[in-house]
Amino acid sequence: MSRLMGLNTLAYMNKQADGKVDQKTLLKEISELGFTIVEIRREYLTEMDTDIDAIAQQAKRLQLDVFYSVPSELFIKGALNDHLAKYFSETVALGGRQLKLTLGEFEQLTPEIASALEKLLKEYPVHLTIENDQSVQKGGPEALINFIEQVKEKQLDIGLTFDTGNFVYIGVDPEEAAYKLKDFVSYIHIKNVKVTDDGVVLSGLKTGDINMKTVLNVFPDNIPAAVEYPCGSGEEILSNIAKDFEEIRSWQ
């Protein structure tokens, strides 16, 4: 079975000198490259309602599954983020089937919090997934396991997004983390990084320190994955994405 592959629009972050990414214009190209999933980034939506509507229509026509990446946390000071319903609503408006957040300041999944999450998950036909961020307290394997085990006890449909590169920022080996978390992971971010004298920096698929093939092979093929790193600049982006896509496909 071939792993379903997606492209996070972060791949295009260096396409324009001003750093702006017009996501609604990229979907046809992403589909033609062979991806079946596009991961839309909320911070790249410049005209929220217009962009969402255009992306939803185009993705439906191209039969692309839409995942939605929101740079926000599930928990703020131990309580649920007040904007959760808005993020779920935006995901539905996009025609999306998955919403990604980071964990935030999680303390305990109280009955009240579990009930509020259950209500949201029933109201919106969206899979919620939590990504490891670049901090030990909010994105380390132990913090994620503590959260997801409580989630499973409450029988809530929440999974983890495993970001390969983010573990390097906190000094955790991505392969070791993969073995610890693989039973809870529902999505993978393929992101390579390199440790330099100036700190950890984003890199290309094969120029970073992570053996991506080894890490991906920890997870079963039915877990989708998305390319999530800058794929060059200007006109070279398209060819770089195509080459990396074929490289990843060759591992399966």
UniProtKB/TrEMBL annotation:
<protein>
    <recommendedName>
        <fullName>Xylose isomerase-like TIM barrel domain-containing protein</fullName>
    </recommendedName>
</protein>
<dbReference type="InterPro" id="IPR036237">
    <property type="entry name" value="Xyl_isomerase-like_sf"/>
</dbReference>
<dbReference type="Pfam" id="PF01261">
    <property type="entry name" value="AP_endonuc_2"/>
</dbReference>
<dbReference type="InterPro" id="IPR013022">
    <property type="entry name" value="Xyl_isomerase-like_TIM-brl"/>
</dbReference>
<feature type="domain" description="Xylose isomerase-like TIM barrel">
    <location>
        <begin position="28"/>
        <end position="219"/>
    </location>
</feature>
